[in-house]
Amino acid sequence: MIYNIPFIAVAALVLIGLYAVVFKRNLIKIVIGITLIESGVNLFLITLAYRQDSTAPIWHGITASSNNVPFMSLPVPHALTLTSIVIGVAVLALMLSLVIHIYRHYGTLNVNKLGGDEE
Amino acid sequence: MSGGMSKIVKTISNISFPLVLIYGLYIIAHGHLTPGGGFQGGAVVASGCAMILVAYGSIWTMGKIKEKHLSILESLGAIAFIGLAFLGLIFGFVFFKNFLIGEGLIFDNPALGLSDIYTAGIIPLMNFAVGLKVIAGLFAIVLVMAYATTKKEAETK
Amino acid sequence: MNIEQILDTLLRHSPALIVAIPLLGAFLTPLISKINDKVRNVFVILTILATNFFIFLLASDVFAGNIHTYVFGAKNLSIPVVRILFEVDGLSAFMAIIAGILSLAAVIYSWSFMKENTGLNKFYTLMLLMTAGMLGMMLTGDMFNFFVFLEITSIASCALIAFWTNKGKAVEAGFKYIAISAIGALFVLFAIALLYAQYDALNIAVLANNIQYTFLDKIALVILIAALAMKAGIVPMHMWLPDAYGRAPASVTLLLVGATQASLYGVFRVCFTLYGSQLNSTLRNISGTTITLNSLLGTIIVILAIVTILIGVMMALKQIDFKRMIAYAAVAEIGYMFLAVGAGLTTLGTAVSMNALKGGIFHIINDALDVGLLFLVAGAIYYATKQTSLNNMGGLARNMKYTTVFFLIGLLAVAGMPPMNGFASKILIYESVYQVNPVLSIVAILCSILLLAVFIKVFHSAFLGPEQPDLKDVKEVPKSMLIAMGLISCIIIFFGLFPELVVNNIVQPAANALASNTSYISQVMGVI
Questions:
Q1: Cross-chain Cβ contact C73/B98 below 8 Å
Q2: How far is C450 from C445, CA to CA, in rounded Å?
Q3: What is the CA radius of gyration of chain C?
Q4: Is B1 part of a structural domain of the chain?
Q5: Alpha carbon distance B123, B100 (integer Å)
Q6: How far apart are CA C338 and CA B153, in angstroms?
Q7: What are residue C12's phi and psi, to 5 degrees?
Q8: How many cross-chain Cβ pairs, B to C, lie less than 8 Å apart?
Q9: Which residue segments constitute the domains of chain A, with CATH numbers given?
C-alpha cells in the first residue's frame, strides 16, 4: 500500500491542476494550474524509475567488471523528467510574459473581461 | 522592485554571489560524474544572478548589463552545442557522435597515466555550452520581466 | 570522390541534416542580423532552400521503396534499442515535403509582409525553430522525441502568434493557444510514460512489436488520440483555432497549417503504426457480429470528422472577419482528411480502404496548399488596405489584379472544382466514403457546396462591386508576396492537371505505410 502513495499524489496533483485551469477566472491561477499538472506528470515519471532497495544510478569509482555492482534504479526516466522540467520552465516563462502583456493592454486579469467582441 | 533594497541586503548578496556562482559552475563541470549538468548548474547560477537583481533593483542592473549582450552569449552557447554535434558528423561520420572517446588521445591513453582524469569525450563540453546558454537565457528572462513591470508601475503612477 | 558518392553520403545523413540545418540557422540568425537586414533575409532563405534540397533528396529515395533509419551517436543499432532513432517511411517523407514547401513560401512572403516591423531577427529565428520542430515531429521514430519536438513547435508558434504585441487580441490568442497546447502535450507525456512503464521501450517500432491490448494501453490510446486531435483542431476541441489562425500574421498562419497537420500525422502514426498489430483484435461479440478495434476506432473517428465538417462550414457562413472565415474553412477541411482516414480504418484490409486512405492522404497536401494560399491572399489584402472586416472591403479587383486571380484559384481549389487539385482528392474521398456509408458522402458533398457558396460571397463582396471611396489608392502588393502566392498556385494547378502522377508516386507509398506496419517494425527489429 505504501508504494502506491506516489501514484495517488500524481492523481491528486493532476486533478487539482485541471480544476484550477477549468474553473478559475484569474489568469495567474490558470498558469498555476498548468504548473501543477506539469508537476504531477514529472512525479509520475520519477516514480516509474524506482526499484525496491536500489541506489542512485551513479558509478562510484568501480569498473563494470567488478563483482559487487550495486542494484541501481533506472536512469532513463530521470533523463525524461529533466527534459520535461526544462520544457516546463520555457512554457512558464512564455505564459507569464504573455500575461504581463495582457495586463498592460486590458488592465485586468479576469478572463471574462478580456476581448470578446467577435465569436 | 525598481529601487534596490537596503545596505545590509546588498552587502550580504555581494558576499554570497561568488559562492552561488562557484557552486553552480561546480554542478555544470561535474555533470558527467555526479548528478547535475548543464541545465541544473545554469539554473543555480541564474538564481544567484536573480538575487543580485532583487538586491540592487532592476533599473541599476539594466544599466550595467544590456539585454543584447546576453542575447549574444546565448547564441554563442547554442552555436557551440550544435557545432559540437556537427563536428561529430565530420570526425565521427555520425551526427552527435562522441568522437573524443576511445580514440587514444591524451586522456584515453593508459600509458600516459592520465586516464583517470577525463574520459567522457564531448559530454562536458556540451555541458558547458548548455550551461552558458541557460545562464544567459534565464537571466535575460528575469531581467526583462522585472524591467517590464517597472515601466508598468511608472505608467500607472 | 565523384558525384555519386557525395550524393550517397548526403542521402545517408539526410534525416539528421533535415532537422539540424534549420536549427543551426536559427541559432546563427541573431549573430548574422547584426550585419545587415538584407543579409539576414538572404541567409534565412538559403537555409530553407538547403533544407528543401535534402527533403527532396530523401523523399525521392524513400518513395522508391526504402525506409531510412538514422541512429544518433552510433553507427549501427544495437540490442537493446537505447539510442534515439529517426525512421523515415512513406508517410514521413510525404509530410516533410509539405513542411518544406510551406516554410519556403512563408519565408519568401515574410520578406515584404513584415518589413515595417521591429524585432525581425527574433521573428526569423522563431520561424526557423518552428520549421525544425515540425520536421522533427514528422521524421522521428521515438515517442519521447516526438513529444519534445511537439513542445518546441508549440512554444515557437505561440511566440509567433503573439508577435504583434501592440494588439491585445493577438496576445490573448497566443495565451489561449499555449495554455491548450501545454495541457495537451502534458497529457501526451502522461500516455508515453504509461506505455514506457509497461514495455520499457520508447521506440515506436519496438513498442509496436510488443504491444498487447491491456487496460493501461487502452487508457494510453484514448489520451494520445484525444490530445493530438485537440492539437489538430478537431471539434469539439477546436476553440483555439479560429483565434490563433485569425490574429497571427499571414505567413505565420501558413506555418501553423503545417504544424496542425503534423499533429494529425501524430494521430495517424499512433492509430495505424503503434497499435497496428492490435487493430484486428476482437473487442466484443454482440449476437453474431464481432466488433473489432479498428471498426470501433474508425466509427468514432468518422463521427468526430462529420461533426467537424458540419460545424466548420456552418460557423464559416456567419463570419465577417476575413481570416476567421478561412480558419473555419480550414477546420472543415481537416474534417475531410479525418473522415477519409477514418473510413479507411473501418474497413482495413480491403480495396475500399486503400482508396479511402489515398484520398485522405492526398487531401492533406491539397488542403495545406489551398488554405495556405487563401491565408496569403487575406494577408495581402490586409497589407494593402489595413482592413480585416468584409464590411469595409469592396471593388479591389480594379487595383489588385494578381491577388484576385490567386484568390480565384484558391476558391476553386478549396471548393473542389476541376481542374484544381481539390477536385482530385475530394472525388477520391466521395467515392470511397460512399462505399462505407452513403450518408457520409452526401453530407460531405453538401458541405463542399456550402463552402463554395461562402467563398463566392466573399469573392463578390471583397473583389467585385463598386469601388469604396477610402480604398481608392490601394496598390498591388510587393513582388515577394506575389512570388510566394505564385509558387503555391503553380503547384496547385500542376497537382490538379496531373493527379495520377501524384497519386501513384507520392501518395501510394504513404498509404502503403499506413495500411500495414510490418515494414516499419522489421526495419528496426530485423536488424536485432
A1: yes
A2: 9
A3: 22
A4: no
A5: 9
A6: 50
A7: -65, -35
A8: 41
A9: 2-53+74-113 (1.10.287.3510)
Interchain contact, A100 vs B148, CB within 8 Å = yes
Interchain pair C189, A84: CB under 8 A: yes
Q: Give the domain range for residue B101.
A: 7-156
B19 lies within 8 A of chain A by CB: no
Give a yes or no: residue B126 inside a domain.
Answer: yes
Closest residue of C to B93, CA-based?
C75
C469 alpha-carbon distance from chain centroid = 40
Q: At what angle do helices C351-385 and C479-497 cross, to 10 degrees?
A: 160
Chain A's closest residue to B147, CA to CA, is A100
Extract long-range pairs of C472-475: CB within 8 Å, 24+ residues apart.
C474/C384, C474/C385, C474/C396, C474/C399, C474/C400, C475/C384, C475/C399, C475/C400
Tens-binned pLDDT, residue by residue, of chain C (528 aa): 688 888 888 888 899 999 999 999 999 998 998 888 889 999 999 999 999 999 999 999 999 888 888 888 777 777 677 888 899 999 999 999 999 999 999 999 998 888 888 888 899 999 999 999 999 999 999 999 999 999 999 999 999 999 988 888 899 999 999 999 999 999 999 999 999 999 988 999 899 888 888 899 999 999 999 999 999 999 888 889 998 998 999 999 999 999 999 999 999 999 888 888 888 777 777 777 778 888 888 889 999 999 999 999 999 888 888 889 999 999 999 999 999 998 988 888 788 888 899 999 999 999 999 999 999 999 988 888 887 788 778 778 778 888 888 999 998 898 888 888 888 889 989 998 898 889 989 999 999 999 898 888 888 888 887 777 777 777 788 888 888 999 999 999 999 888 888 888 888 988 888 888 888 888 888 765
What residues 67-86 of chain C have any CB closer than 8 A to a CB of chain B?
A: 70-75
What sign does the CA torsion over C158, C161, C163, C169 have?
negative
Q: pTM of the entire structure? A: 0.94
Distances in Å between the alpha carbon of C389 and those of C7, C135, C408? 51, 34, 19
Mutation for testing the A interface, residue in C158, C160, C177, C183 having most A CBs under 10 Å: C183
Asked whether residue B49 is domain-assigned, the answer is yes
Q: How far is B138 from chain C (nearest CA, A)?
A: 16
**How far out from the chain centre does Cα B5 lie?**
26
Q: Residue C502: which of C94, C54, C61 has the closest Cα? A: C94
- CB-CB under 8 Å, B35 with A56: yes
Q: Does B2 map to a domain?
A: no
Q: How many domains does chain B have?
A: 1
How many CA atoms lie less than 13 Å away from C62 in the CB half-sphere? 34
Instruction: Answer whether A98 sits within 8 Å of C178, measured CB to CB.
Output: yes
- Across the A:C interface, residue pairs with CB atoms under 8 Å apart total 77
Domain chopping of chain C, boundaries = 281-497
Ramachandran bin of C416, using left for φ above 0, alpha for ψ from -120 to 50, beta for the remaining angles: left
CA of C103 vs chain B CAs: smallest distance (Å): 22
Tell me, what's the ipTM?
0.94
| Grid cell locating C182 | 501545454
- Report how far apart, in Å, the C-alpha atoms of C253 and of each of C103, C301, C378, C385 are: 11, 26, 11, 19
Kindly report the number of other CB atoms within 10 A of residue B147's CB atom. Answer: 18
Task: Return the residue in A59, A62, A83, A100 with the most chain B beta carbons within 10 A, the one to mutate for interface testing.
Answer: A100
Please check whether residue A22 touches B, CB under 8 A.
Answer: no
Which residues does chain A have within 8 Å of residue B152's beta carbon, measured at their own beta carbons? Answer: 100, 103-104
Check: CB of residue C442 under 8 Å from CB of residue C427. Answer: no
Q: Chain B neighbours among A 76-105 (CB < 8 Å)?
A: 82, 85-86, 89, 93, 96-97, 100, 103-104
